[in-house]
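Hello,

I think I submitted the adenosine-5'-triphosphate job twice by accident. Can you confirm which output corresponds to this input? Input:
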Amino acid sequence: MKKFTFEEITNHLITQGFFYPGSEIYGGLANSWDYGPLGSLIKNNVKDLWIEHFVRQIPYNYLIDPAILMNPKVWEATGHVSNFSDPLIDCKNCNSRFRADKLIEDQLSDKYDVNKLSESDMNKIVNVEKQVVCPKCGSRNFTEIRKFHLMFKTFLGVLEDSKSTVYLRPETAQGIFVNFKNVLRTTRSKLPIGICDIGKAFRNEITPGNFIFRTREFEQMEIEFFIEPGEDKKWFKFYKKNCKSFVETLGLKDENIRFRDHEKEELAFYSLATTDIEYLFPFGWGELMGIACRTTYDLQRHQDYSKQDLTYYNQETNTRYLPSVIEPSFGLDRLILALLCDSYDVEDVKDDKRIVLHLNPRVAPYTVAILPLSNKLTEQANKKILKVLDRRLNYIVDTTGSIGKRYRRQDAIGTPLCVTYDFDSVNDKCVTVRNRDTMEQVRIKITKLNKYIQDFLFK
Ligand code: ATP
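Support: Only one job matched these inputs. Its output is below.
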């Protein structure tokens, strides 16, 4: 398999307009990225496919869209106010800041499993045994580890005091837990019931980086699946299988995906099991998503802190209890990055090279490019082709340069089908459809074009 550097791939994505550096005309803002026209289309496609896979195809599941700003008591109940922090160290020589756990992971992974180290273990490795070096200047002199809080704070209303402090949510999941009873009541459901949510989350990461892999503002696609306690294993297995089939449906290559089961020492005290799906990025394995068996922990905490009854009444058994929860949690941006890295290729074609993104056609920004052979044909081509195309399809009309150049341009952004309208089309009412991956061309009637595309997309 060919390997490409991360820089080569990300440069391509920026040049093509998948992403732009955030606030670029003001010099940017610490690893923030804006999605450009192509990136935004991919993002919507991945969200749609997630909804199709996890909401439409699982009859127990519902989609909601809770607010980003929540009552601060939510974050006291979850433990985020007291515990959501990373171990921060500064290099005493060059003042660069690092996450101690990440430095140990990067430099000593053959010796330590960082997930099993306590804060004092890390302090010993860094400051007593001096086993890690500063990646910037090579010094081994670091400050003691300090806890760095990851939640962004802001103020609600006009007063900037502790009473008006609110947080930008660090995960979307809690908007689901606080609405458990609402969704149960208004959908008149019984267990099991899944509540799904796509939205922004914010974490003041110490070391954002690797492009959109780790940013301070990102999007999550999360499900809390509420079940009868005791059925945890069955549903955990169900979601493990389902999440794997989702990443396969999207088109990630099997050899670049792996499950990482958390070991006992790594699990939170309430969790029965947790598995991450990891992807082999050009910079190494990275977490795409996690599936956690969270038992009754979250609902119990919210019940205790809100003093509201969050139990479920089972009419058949005439019993009342808190449901257990399985949580599959995807990072949308990481998934998109994985799809783009996985599909990137540079191929020799005749005397030329082409950059091509072999994206799943349903993920690709545009399904179809319409290429009128001459400017004189543009109006006619648009009229004839757009009349038959399904209006939900994303398409682009490209009128500049030779057909060969236009094919290369579409290959580089992953457009799976190019439709050329030429002078013969006027009389024979046919177009030439060229396939991105095989580069084969077929001539088909314009009236059959839409069916051809639908069959191609949903084969
Ligand atoms: P990491 O160990 O990489 O910081 P995490 O285990 O803290 O991630 P979770 O809290 O489990 O992450 O969040 C669920 C998912 O949200 C992750 O699997 C990841 O895809 C995504 N995610 C978390 N933090 C970020 C971030 N800073 N930028 C982009 N995506 C993120």
